[in-house]
Amino acid sequence: MRNRKLNAWVEEIRELCQPDAVAWCDGSEEEYLRLLDGMVRKGAAVRLNQQLRPGCYLFRSHPSDVARVEDRTFVATRDREEAGPNNNWRDPDELKEEMRALYRGCMRGRTMYVVPFVMGPLHSPFSIVGVEITDSPYVVVNMRLMTRMGEQALDMLGEGDFIPCLHSVGAPLQPGQEDVAWPCAPELSQKYIAHFPEDMSIWSYGSGYGGNALLGKKCLALRIASAKARNEGWMAEHMLIMGITDPVGRKSYFTAAFPSACGKTNLAMLVPTLPGWKVETLGDDIAWLRRGEDGRLRAVNPEAGFFGVAPGTSFQTNPNAMHSISQDTLFTNVALTDEGDVWWEGIGTPPPPHLTDWQGKDWAPGAATPAAHPNARFTVSITRCPSLAPEWEAPEGVPVSAILIGGRRPGTVPLVYESRSWRHGVFMGSIMGSEITAAAISNAIGQVRRDPFAMLPFIGYNIKDYLRHWLDMESRFPAGRLPKVYSVNWFRKDAQGRFLWPGFGDNARVLKWIFERVRVEGGAKDTPVGAVPAPGDLDLGGLDVSQAAMETLLSVDGDEWRKEAASIRSYYQSLGDGLPKELWAELEALEARLSQAE
User: Considering 25, 56, 184, 262, which one is annotated as catalytic?
Assistant: First the structure.
């Protein structure tokens, strides 16, 4: 017998949305293939060449539906201050009334799929059960790869609580009306991604794109989970989880928070250039963190797959990702070769003379538009990853020895530096971000877009309370048991605009230094911003980087950092009253150290 609350909710939504049929998804391989075959027959998917890409399919979205729509993403709370300056706030009663009008009859002519799913390892104390109701078979097949979905989720749920997630593409069909390949509400004003943290529910309407429609991902695992975590004393973070093992077999686990386009997936699947060192992948996007029974910070990856950006992924940048997507992968908005394979900009091979682009049009080299959309995606089970750590589903999570943060900073920020304390580490996370390199307003170029812990679009409540929660975590742990925070910056450039650090597999040299520091083995020198490697502390064997370049990479220039401190002060002021006083104190301490170093 199914969960009574779930049965009642499904019936309520069936009456509201008026689908032609209701299907309870079991998560089986047979169901997955049947849905894919149905989409191929209807022209909504392309079955790729099964000799070249076994088990792979291509989808093309509507041009209006290619990415997350932050302007139409809402956090609805009774008190506007609870949502904070970082969210688009709506009154929950008003928003629900507005959306109910859209949902009324929105699934006519379609099947309503009931998708039970688990975020986190099955039967882990970390894990959360959700149920997504959707009229999109594309969502169903992606959810099967991204979550533990179907009967196993219902078994775990029993008569317990779940997060209700309602989704519709917003394109009802009239009798006899032919469907389109990618149904959605084409007008931006008709797209809604709504979060109701006070009743722990998610409503999405009008978009079929992953971040707006796969509601277990950013919506549940970050926005709703972050609010739940604040209430319950844990953290839901936009972080990869990796294991790193040294040549004698000692292993440590790191998490890392980077904004988009800063190499998070590449780092999670790193192939080290250092002999004898190994990196294993536990997750590339989201980490749930809480105190373990041993008094250490422990992390689990709530997801079961990768929803990665294809352009720029190649055997040079991420060989493990390329091996992962060699089969059993769903591609969205990449280009199609005449042989039935996929291609995208940055794949590492020249484009063939002819392609079918992401909109289904003929494309040839030299065209004015890219063949693949810049946000084209691949969806694949994490079990396909060659570097997957065997303990990735450990129900108790893995102990975190270091937290890495970073962004794209062509100057100022050194290659790596270490926090002085937990509070200083929270300060470092609060100020991280990337320099703006192109903008509609030219005077914004060169400014830093701050993105605290890479969570700015994903915090389900007020950012100032979020930073307070980070600070308060210290009181939940024995003294000295929380990991240190390390800022990394792979993107520093010379005066000619060339990258000073080779990156990719050579980032393992920085990971090695952090690995040794957390074991109190590595050397360092103090600077006003934190500890950096002293000369000789980084393993540079076989690396073609000049001494002058290394000096620049590890330098802390007082004049640049005084400008940085002024920028941080301006940013803090922009958040308004209520920013934790401890962060203001850390800024003042930084300014004092910089003054003393003059």
Answer: 262
